[in-house]
Amino acid sequence: GGWLVGRPGGGRAAMTLAVFFGCAFVAFGPALALFLLTVAADPLRIIILIAGAFFWLVSLLLSSLVWFVASAASASGGGGGGEALQKGLLIGGVVFSVLLQEAFRFLYYKLLRKAIEGLVALSDDGCCPVSIQQMAYVAGLGFGLMSGAFSMINLLADAVGPGTVGIHGDSQLYFLSSAFMTLVMIFLHTFWGIVFFHGCETRQWWEVSAVVILHLIVSGLTFWNPIYLGSLLPSYLLMAAVAVWAYLLSGGSKQNLHHFLLCLRSGTTPPPAS
Fold first, then answer.
1. DSSP state, residue 253
2. Which of 44, 69, 77, 228, CA to CA, is 20 to 30 A from 14?
3. With contact defined as beta carbons under 8 Å apart, do 193 and 141 qualify?
4. DSSP bridge partners of 3
5. How many whole angstroms separate alpha carbon 219 and alpha carbon 144?
6. What angle do CA 255, 192, 159 make, to 5 degrees?
7. CB neighbours of 176 closer than 8 A, spacing ≥ 6?
8. Cis amide linkage into residue 272, ω under 30° from 0
9. DSSP tally for the chain: helices H, then strands E
């Protein structure tokens, strides 16, 4: 709500373009930087990222199909249903979508496990060119980028205008808040991928369960909207906690971080991890 369509003028067009590019860079700028710095130079990592995005896309397709069938059934059976029924369908749809995404994350892990066996068999030295930790990171980034793209594509199209946000008294922070929520979801999917794959590798199923529960919690926080602080602040706090968790599971330590910061300060390049 709060989006009034009108005739675009020069100043209005410049303002809507500023909103478009600002929200786009907030939502996808850091993830694009990660892609360029850590993925783009390796063709195998690009394939893993695209395949991860495809798995997330299939989960969305199946979730949308179930949502369409459930909505049509409720409309035909109860004359459109009451507000409580629609709210129940929305909550159920979110829960089902999250569970389906995590199920496809597990299927993708199994597929990558098979791919590792094939890569080891084909390599001359008997080693896989990409470790399972790197696969987890790239796969999670693929999940996050596709999730972010579908979260923001329609909003970015509307942000171009013509119109004025919040002219009817609604929040003017709708687009910016959506961009920051997209950003945190992209990073969360990346970190969740690392934790999820580690849990599958070590048979620590409580880590897998924790990822599913955290995904449900963050998705449920969006029901606080349009009280955006109620969804954004807890989501970013959870992201920080999961980032530290993923860092430690990937072999990181306080000493490694301290050494890295010292290298940055002195202008030297840290040695590659063994």
1. -
2. 228
3. yes
4. 165
5. 14
6. 115
7. 22, 23, 26
8. no
9. 8, 2
Mean pLDDT to the nearest integer, 28-40? 95
Please confirm whether the linkage preceding 226 is cis (ω < 30° from 0): yes
User: What one-letter code names the amino acid at 170?
Assistant: D
The per-residue pLDDT for range 185-241, each reduced to its tens digit, is: 999 999 999 999 999 999 999 999 999 999 999 999 988 887 888 889 999 999 999
What gap in Å lies between CA 105 and CA 122, rounded to an integer? 26
Question: What is the b/e burial string over 14-31, where b = at least 16 CB atoms within 10 angstroms of the residue's CB?
Answer: eebeebbeebbebbbeeb
| Tokens encoding 38 | 């850590």
Checking if the pLDDT of 5 tops 60, the result is no
Q: Enumerate residues 6+ apart whose C-beta is below 8 A from 151.
A: 27, 178, 181, 182, 185
**In one letter, which amino acid is 136?**
A
